[in-house]
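User: Hey, my collaborator sent me this sequence without any context and asked if I could get a structure. I don't really work with proteins. Can you help?
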Amino acid sequence: MDTVVISGTGLFTPENSISNDELVAAFNEFVKRHNELRAEAIAAGTEEPLLASSSEFIVKASGIRSRYVIDKKGILDPDRMTPYIPERSDDEPGIQCDMAVASCMQALEQAGRTVEDVDAVIVACSNLQRAYPAVAVEVQQALGIDGFAYDMNVACSSATFGIQAGVNAIQTGAARAVLVISPEICSGHLNFRDRDSHFIFGDACTAVLLEKAQQVEAGKGFEILSTKLKTQFSNNIRNNFGFLNRCDEKGQGQRDKLFMQNGRKVFKEVIPLVSAMILEHAKENQVSAAGIKRLWLHQANLNMNVLIAKKVLGRDPSAAESPTILDTYANTSSAGSIIAFHQYKEDLSAGDVGIICSFGAGYSAGSVIVRKR
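Assistant: No problem. I've predicted the 3D structure and written it out in C-alpha cell form, which is a compact way to encode the shape of the chain:
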C-alpha cells in the first residue's frame, strides 16, 4: 500500500483571548447575584449556595491559564454567560467554513500545494454547527476543490479518526490528497455557569494535509507509520444537544444540553485506557519507549497528560517530549493534539518517531505513529 505523509498543517486562532482572571471575575459576579437572589432559600437550608471559582483552582485542576474564543463579550457578561455568535444567512459562508478555509490555506502553503492538488475534504470535529448540508462540502466549495467531502464526529478523537479515514482514501486510490479539518467552537456548548467546567474549553481550528509519499518532496513532512483506533461507550462525558431539542431564548437551555462530565471517573478510566493503547500500538510497530521522541497528546488536562506520558515512557516526561498548549488555548477538543503537533514538530530530526494521540467522549481514542522524513 502507498505510504501516506502529513505534508502540511494549519491553525486558525480567534482574535479574542480570555484569561483565567477575567473568566473568574465574571463567574464570581454571577455567583454573587445568584446567591443574593436565592438568599432566603439558602438561609432556610432548602438550597445550597453556589461556590466561587478562582484562577488558582483552575490552574491546579487543569493547567489552563487562558483560552481563545470566537466571542468574548457574551461569555464575560454575568447576565448572559454564553458567546454571542450571530446567525448567518444561508447564502453566507458559515463561521466554521471561514475557520476551516483559513487553516487549510496555511496547511497548503506549508506543503507547497494548491487546492488543485486535493481531492477530498473531511471535517472531523466535536461540535458541528448544523446537521446538513455537511460543513465539509461547504468548505470544499469555498476552497474550489473538485472531489468529495463529508463530516464526521468522534468527539475529541475526531482528528485522529479523520486522519485514519484520509489515509484509507489515499491508499485505496479514492484521493491523491486529503484535507482533515477540525473547526472547534467549544465555547458554544460550554456551561459557563458551572464551576467545575466553566474554564475548560476554547475555540480553534486545525487542518492536516495528507498525501502519497511519492508525490511529496524527499525529506519533507511526516510519514504515517500506523494508525490505531479504539472506542468504548461511556456516559461520563456527554452533551445531549441535537436537532431533537432546543435551547431557550438566551441560549442557556437545560444543563444536559450543554457539555457535562464526571471528571473524577474520566480521569480514573481514561488514563489506563489511553496509555495501554499507545503502548500496544507502539509494540505492534516495534517502537520502544526510548524510541518515542515526542507525544502530541490530546490537550484536555495537564495532569492527565503527564500521567499518560509517564506510563508510556516509563519515567517523568520532559516538557519537550510531551508539549502542552493548554495554558494558552485550553481544551480545544479534537483540535488540541493537532495544535500541539503543528507548533512542536519542526525541531525533530529525520528519522525521529512521535505519536499523535487523542481521546475523549465515547470513550474514544486514536493513535497515529509518525516519523520525520
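In plain terms: The chain is about 30% helix and 20% strand. You can pass these C-alpha cells on to your collaborator as they are.
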